[in-house]
Amino acid sequence: MSGPFLQPIGAPAPRVIVALTMRDGRLVRTVRFRNPAYVGDPIVAVKIFNDKGTDELILLEIGDKPLDDRRIEELKDIATEAFMPISYGGGVRSIDHVRAIVRSGFEKVVLNTALHETPTLAGEAAREFGAQAVVASIEIGRSWLGRIHVRTACGRRATRWKPLNWARRCEELGCGEIVVTFVDRDGTMTGYDLDLLAQIAGAVRVPVIPLGGAGTVEHLKQGIRAGASAVAAGSMFVYYGPRRAVLINYPDMSAAFD
Hints:
This protein is an alpha/beta fold. The chain has a single domain, classed as Aldolase class I (TIM Barrel, Alpha-Beta Barrel). The chain is built from 9 helices and 14 strands. Strands 1, 2, 3, 4, 5, 6, 7, 8, 9, 10, 11 and 12 form a 12-stranded mixed sheet that branches. A two-stranded antiparallel ribbon has the order 13-14. The longest helix is centred in the N-terminal third of the chain and has 12 residues. The protein is globular and about 40 Å long. It starts with 14 loop residues before the first strand and ends in a 12-residue tail after the last strand.
């Protein structure tokens, strides 16, 4: 049997990406982008994920402060310990920031607020480093009236953009990959917004990666079936059990997508 949501026989397993969030050099986790809770040291976490054979890692700085020299030095230390593909986003505002991140050892740079404020940055970075190195981060949240809008500044500011239109715009700007973050599901571990994910994945030609809501391997599989090219999660890889004890974990994914 075949179908649009089934992998071809012999196809490689989808990428399962660990998303880590940092604030002021400390690893934290949030719920719906609020109340950051300390969960450990980023370098220690990266070392553990290395040992567990993690496919890929995305490191996101929350708080939306512009990138500075101190943080660049921190990123160099983290990248030195990473033996898997690693991306960084947070406070990136210029091509000089992009260059500094790549030179620090990161394969990809994640852009969010900068895409709204300086849309030419994506194309400039893509021309210099290739589109595969430029990732658009799209934060999607609902207003108190239930209206869905793209947000910036770590979910604090709503824009006029609707998710599908903004995803197409990010592709036009030169981004080679799109991470879609469901703000209202962040840290809840209740699953992705599959309907919206499927709509966005069907609207663009570049890979789409959902983030926000995954709490089980089945949630990851649902994301792939909905059209995602890869899947990302944070809380499910740093918490264990109903009391959310901090425990770095990464289940064996080799058979998960058979």
